Amino acid sequence: YCNLAQQFREFIMGKTKPIRVLIVDDHPMVRSGLGEFIYAYDWMEPIGEAQNGVEAVEFCAANEVDVVLMDMVMPMMNGSEATRRILALGKPLQVIVLTSFHEQDLVQQALKAGAISYLLKNASAEDLAAAIQAAHAGRSILAPEATEALIQAARQGTGVGFDLTAREREVLALLVDGSSNLEISKKLSISMATVKYHLTNIFSKLGAKNRVEAATTALEHNLVDQNH
């Protein structure tokens, strides 16, 4: 990690400007908490908030931002797409993914989109501060869970459905059984929006256009336990 004390001394001496941080998350309490966290450090400042990817892209297009703290699962536009579009603006900024999820596909999507770091929301204040400073300097930090997800993905190979997450396999199994979205929602105790999110990922990963094609592919490649 970087030397936070040295960064602070340089800031006090006027050698550096505070790192300008944009907070992107669809939960108001998370945005508020992150804002208070950033205010506690004199060498960085929160310059704005966005509750979805669309707002984040618009803010970065209109303002000077150094580091973006980006959630992954949000309405309107997810974190990976927002990251891709923000970096396409060509501005000198970095994106740190800060999320509750560490599934393989989300980690891969974020890094492919250009995020420099991937952290979980249970990271300590010290680790997050160090990651922001590192990102500003062009250095990457990955949460241990994210690193493990990448290692698992590499070990699994590239067969059909290899990148399905455990939850996606559960949804797929219920789909094969003929469960509707509402039934899947009730059986797994997840929202309808989350069911649709998982189904979209499943269709994409299996190259399926609809539920029938997804179920057929799952059975052909033994992606679900037919005796469950």
Keywords:
228 residues, alpha/beta
Structural commentary:
The protein is of the alpha/beta class and about 230 residues long. The longest helix has 15 residues, at about 190-205. The mean pLDDT is about 90. The chain has a 5-stranded parallel beta sheet, with helices on both faces. Helix 8 (about 165-175) crosses helix 10, helix 8 (about 165-175) packs across helix 11 and helix 9 crosses helix 10 (about 190-205). The protein has 11 helices and 5 strands.
Strand segment tally: 5
User: What is the mean predicted local confidence, pLDDT?
Assistant: 88
Regions with little confidence, pLDDT below 50 for 5+ residues: none
The largest sheet, given as strand count, sense and whether it forms a barrel, is: 5 strands, parallel
**What letter string, H or E per element, gives the SSE order?**
HEHEHEHEHEHHHHHH
Spatial ordering of strands, largest sheet: 2-1-3-4-5
Shape: elongated
Number of helices: 11
Distance between the termini: 47 Å
Radius of gyration: 20 Å
Coarse structural class: alpha/beta
Helix content: 40-55%
**Which band does the percent of strand residues land in?**
5-15%
Task: Give a topology summary.
Elements: H1 4-12, E1 19-24, H2 28-39, E2 44-50, H3 53-62, E3 67-70, H4 79-87, E4 94-99, H5 104-113, E5 117-120, H6 125-136, H7 144-156, H8 166-176, H9 181-188, H10 192-206, H11 211-220
Parallel strand pairs: 1-2, 1-3, 3-4, 4-5
Helix pairs in contact: 3-4, 4-5, 8-10, 8-11, 9-10
